[in-house]
Amino acid sequence: MLDLLIKSAKLISIPNLVDVAVKDGRIVEISPVIIGEATRVIEARGRLVSPPFTDPHFHMDATLSLGLPRINRSGTLLEGIALWGELKSLLTVEDVMERALRYCDLAVSQGLLAIRSHVDVCDDRLIAAQALIEVRKRVAPYIDLQLVAFPQDGLYRDPKAEANLIKALDLGLTVVGGIPHFERTMQDGTRSVIRLCEIAEKRGLTVDLHCDESDDPMSRHIETLASETVRLGLQGRTVGSHCTSMHSMDNYYASKLLPLIAEAGVHIISNPLINITLQGRSDSYPRRRGLTRVAELRAAGVNVAFGQDCTMDPWYSLGSADMLEVAHMGIHAVPMTSREAMAWAFESVTTNGAKAMGLPDPTLTVGGPASMVLLQARDPIEAVRMKATRIAVIRNGKIISETTPRLASLFLPGRPQMLDPANFAPLTED
Ligand code: FE2
To answer: Which fold has domain 53-356?
Structure first.
């Protein structure tokens, strides 16, 4: 007796429709037709069943705090950081936990089951770290939550940052964060990258830096991150998040930098919702889009993933834990509109995010964990286009969320129908 049988599913790597059988939390068979009894049968009707979504860059300590204690009026990164500083002194463990758990509920409903959150450790009380360690424990049955010790006020700009960062790692945070472009000088930024990589190497941890989240083309800390990665043997264990200054770098310099990033195996995380709203704020016209060189990094062989960064916090008033919304914005903001690139955008919020987080490849295979999402779409591009409803979210063989598909009842003369807004348009090939 199977635990779960999904009939007529579209899997990303298989051209024809298949049935998927689940037993004891694992996928036990993928075949065109599976005959067998199951406790629960889901009719996918040709819709896409994909790996769960991943968000490799988020701030769970700040999420859902919009309006506390006030709104960011200028909309800039720097006012956001100042506003967060005001809110930080008011935080309690209970408040951070309540907001984070509420966000995790929303994430599950959106099929988002792996999140890396930066946690501000520039706080002698380490309130956010304590709260999110408890949240990590509570959500472990359904979300892989990774916590980054993030010195928001700068490793050297805040005289207590390093001591608090070490304390937070001792408490149980597992990734070393940083913000070199926010240090007082370029030299301090460089020193911080070196120091943070050394801390990670000594402890056997990974590094994930807010790196060059700036419009300044001379902000080149990603270069130091790549060279430190090689020097310390951290290949595959370092991440440059944002890296927006790359959009304004000289092309010749970028042509040297990109292979260096690829050689070092540094993962790059771009956050399209935030980068397109926070960057280019001091521009008149032409105004920069604000994203890093996503297409060129891909072409150089770098693993690039998209992150959400914020949902309803001092930096961003919108957001909905919907990684398809993030991919959709990425396609527009980069821009990258070929069918190959749009299909890649779906990977950037599933498999690529998992890779950047050091998680196992979540591709659905026989013998692998039965964690997946049934979407109201027939393929990855349609899923991005429609920001498809997550009809069923499955974690280790158990259905943990269900949403009714969107179907419109039309009462038109001569054309009464139930319309599925996802699949009325024919698919076309380039
Ligand atoms: Fe961030």
So the answer is: TIM Barrel (3.20.20)
Indicate if 53-356 has the same CATH topology as 2-51+364-419.
Answer: no
Active-site positions?
213
Where are the chain's structural domains?
2-51+364-419, 53-356
Residue 18: both structure tokens together: 């298949």
H/E segment holding residue 171: helix 161-171
**Distance from residue 362's CA to the centre of ligand 1 (Å):** 24
Taking the centre of ligand 1 as the mean of its atom positions, its distance from the CA of residue 103, in whole angstroms, is 16
Q: Which of 230, 223, 284 is nearest to 250 (CA)?
A: 223
CB burial of 50-86 (b: ≥16 within 10 Å; e: otherwise) equals bbbbbbbbbbbbbbbbbebeeebeeebbebbbebbee
Q: What is the pLDDT of residues 59-81, one digit of tens each?
A: 999 999 999 989 999 988 889 98
The rounded distance, in Å, linking the Cα atoms of 195 and 20 is: 48
Which CATH number is associated with domain 2-51+364-419? 2.30.40.10
Before 405, cis peptide (omega within 30)? no
155 in Cβ contact with 195 (< 8 Å): yes
Cβ–Cβ under 8 Å, residues 160 and 124: yes
Q: Which residues of the chain carry a pLDDT beneath 50?
A: 426-430
pLDDT attached to residue 427: 47
- Beta bridge partners, 211, equal 242
Ligand 1 centre distance from Cα of residue 109 (Å): 23
Q: What tens digit of pLDDT does each residue of 91-111 get?
A: 999 999 999 999 999 999 999
For every residue of 389-413, DSSP letters joined together read -EEEEEETTEEEEE-PPP-EEE--T
pTM: 0.97
Amino acid at residue number 285: Y
At 425 the pLDDT is 54
For 281, the 3-state DSSP assignment is: coil
DSSP 357-388: TTPPP----TTSB--EEEESSSSHHHHHHHT-
Q: Which residues of 269-295 are buried (b: 16+ CB within 10 A; e: fewer)?
A: bbbbbbbbbbbbbeeeeeebbbbbbbe
